[in-house]
Amino acid sequence: MLKVFGVSLLLLVVSASAAPAQSMCGDDPIAPVVPSPADVRQKSPADAAAAKHGAFQDIRRWQGELKSYRDCLDATVTTDTREIGETQRASKPDPDKVKQLQTEIASINRTTLKSTDEEETVVNEFNALSVAYCARTDVDKTSCPKR
Fold first, then answer.
1. Does residue 23 form part of some domain?
2. Does residue 16 sit within a domain?
3. pLDDT tens digits along 17-47
4. How far apart are CA 78 and CA 80, in angstroms?
5. How many domains does one find in the chain?
6. Eight-class DSSP state of 91
7. What span, in angstroms and rounded, lies between the C-alpha atoms of 29 and 62?
């Protein structure tokens, strides 16, 4: 019985310490699907305008969620960095704890970069959609850049 309890406790500790800080911030927000330029060219003028406007709204909502998500990741990095400093200044520094925190920070930084790359991709997709929309002669061009 004691052996089973010990193994269970060990598994609990290992799983808790292995969970990345991102789990505190939840999953990264799911990027919206942006209609392709070909889709916009094939739609009626009203449907093309609605698709462009809908994509714009979806991206703005998603970017708001991304900001909150990244703020949480940044706060976790700040907390971990502070904890590294406190651990290193302790009378008996724990090198394993410092290494674990540094690994967590590196993981968070990779997650942040991944979300930034994804945001750039989505914004570029929207730009392509917008260029295709504005190239049409049968649409309202008030949302298009002036030439």
1. no
2. no
3. 334 555 689 999 999 999 999 999 999 999 9
4. 5
5. 1
6. S
7. 7
Give me the phi and psi of 35, to 5 degrees please. -60, 145
Per-position DSSP letters for 4-44, written without gaps between them: HHHHHHHHHHHHHHHS-THHHH-SPPPPPPPPPHHHHHHS-
Range of the domain at 73: 34-135
C-alpha dist (Å) from residue 98 to 13, 33, 91, 108? 17, 40, 14, 15
Counts for the chain of helices (H) and strands (E), in that order:
5, 0
CATH of the domain at 81: 1.20.58
The answer to the question of residue 108 being in a domain is yes
Residue 28 lies in a domain: no
What is the C-alpha separation between 110 and 8, in angstroms, rounded?
32
47-68: per-residue pLDDT in tens? Answer: 999 999 999 999 999 999 999 9
Instruction: Output the six-digit token pair for 9.
Output: 């406790």
Q: Are 34 and 59 in contact (CB under 8 A)?
A: yes
pTM summary value: 0.79
Residue found under tokens 């504005």: 134
For position 69, what pLDDT does the model report? 97
Record the tokens describing residue 11, joined without a space.
Answer: 């598994």
